[in-house]
Amino acid sequence: MNGRMWHLSLISTGEVIQHVESDVYIEVPHIADRDLALRAGTSATPMDRVETNARVEILKYLREAEKEINKAFMVIGQKNASLYPHMRAKHPDEWGSVSLSEAAKLVYDYRPESWPTLFATHKYIMGRPIEFVPHMQSQRLALTYDVRPENHVVKLQKVVDTVRQRSPELEAFIEKARGLILTAREKASESWDEPPSRVVVNDVTFSTDNRTILDVLHLALRRTRNTCIDPSSGVVTSIIKRIGLHAHKMVDDVCSRQFLIEMGEMAPWEDIVTQRKELNLDLTPDEESQRTRDEHALVQRSLSLLRPSRAKGKQPLGPEDFYDRDPVEHLRHDFGSLPVYVIDDVSAEELDDGLSVEPVLNEPGSAWMHVHIADPTVILPPTHIISEAARRIGSSAHFIHKTWSMLPPSLTHDQLSLGSHSRKGEPEPVLTFSFKINAEGNMVDYDVKAGLIRNVKRVDYDSVDRLLGNGGVQFGYPFEAPQTPEISHVPVLESKDVENIRLMDNLTRKFRQRNRQTLNPFIFSAPSSTLVVTAKPIHGAPTTPTWNASYYCGFPNLTYQVYSQKTMERGSRLLVANCMKTASRVASRWFAAKGVPMLRRSARPPIALEDNRDIERLIARMYEDGFRWSAIPTY
């Protein structure tokens, strides 16, 4: 509807409401027949008698379901079971979690697995937002709720009482906050063009009550779903409004963040996303981080335990034991001296993939392309503490100001990054995804195998673009004069290397062109923007509560760039992107051929087009490279 995916729901009052899919917390399938739902129509009011009768029938089902849910909810209320003390974490500052089925067994004795009981339990949990928060990612899928830490609940209740009673402690905090905010605004204005810095105000300290209020304001910034009741919104609004320096603003997350910045509790350049609980990022500078020191010590202990004799004894591996030898050494294919090109940004911190090509003899125009992925399983077993942590994290976290690696940097840079073994004259263990492209641009064969590569050559995107004569990526700079790209040092490559890179570029372009002709894909892409930081990492406010006030001066040097998919998908970046996408397709085919179940990422059909004939119109106006619009404006 109007280019957006909306859901329509008929509620027990007879109204039809429009909402997005994420507004749904829990659902029971087949409560009404599908044909009956289709006959009910999608308009706000029924258009004819058929729709009216269908809605009446559905409402009968809904009201019967509502009666069953209310009965179960009354039983839960009569039992008066307290769920929070049983579900909260043992440590008063740690979050807990509870599934809906676990909660139902604690609050309801009879048939806790029935859907009316589960619905009633969900209603019970959602009615206690000061104690429970629906999980951001897996609430609807796994029916899981986060349980607030005990100290968070105690602090929030204390601040609620403080605001309600208009206590002298609150008045003292408000007066102190006014002075700090005015000072912070003055200093920020004076130092805008200075480097970022934090200044501690030694003669202004926070009392325990002050610290509690500030802690609650921090907690209020945590991401929640918009359809949830926010137990802290009332007190946050009351406190900020009573200070009187934000009277013209609506007190939302933006206003709350600005308030904390002016109180010295957050740095103006701090990315609030990094504070999300589910990411569990260590915001302490690496040189001060206990987690970083512990990870490094763990890697060193695991490396020190490597003893060839243990492999012969076949002793079970402990949680800190690396493999003594490569478990698939006998299966690895040795690619010998075949050149492997690691193409990435000059500033790339993790080098984990490389490309190579082998022309097929006696088949002009055909070649095998290989995507080599660094293989950490050569030393890292699934039982290792590092492996378990990586499963929880899922991927590295890349932000403008810093990168948090999924694996410890001391292990990645010295043992797992492509090139780390080559520098020592050792082969690099990889997992290789291979595909054969013929002269017509079709994929005619594929393979997946563990491998060894010995001839790794690193080259950056811009250098490859200059070798290919593509001109590189053109960014837009709406707030400043266009910048002259820095001329990076072109690595010394032999003529054969240039031929190989040109061959890979031609093959991937031919394969992409063939896919457009046969698959007819459509992707709706809007222009994007990014910020580039001159110096990384950039750190924010202290991660532990401070008792002295502070303010921030200056700001980091940032460059604002705009780009589109068309400007990015060209040259060396297009070459690498096409190879990675094709490697994923190879993996999918290989798993299917072997009968191995595997998750696959998919996308829904585009909803941006109201008329099916629009696709034909777009195809007719498509440029040779597959794009229709140039999304980068000229400044």
TrEMBL record:
Cellular component terms (Gene Ontology): P-body
SUPFAM superfamilies: Nucleic acid-binding proteins
GO molecular function: 3'-5'-RNA exonuclease activity; RNA binding
Pfam family, one: RNB
A single GO BP: mRNA catabolic process
InterPro entries: NA-bd_OB-fold (IPR012340), RNase_II/R (IPR001900), RNR_Ribonuclease (IPR050180)
Residue ranges annotated for the RNB domain, each copy included: 332-634
Name listed for the protein in its UniProt record: RNB domain-containing protein
Originating organism: Suillus discolor
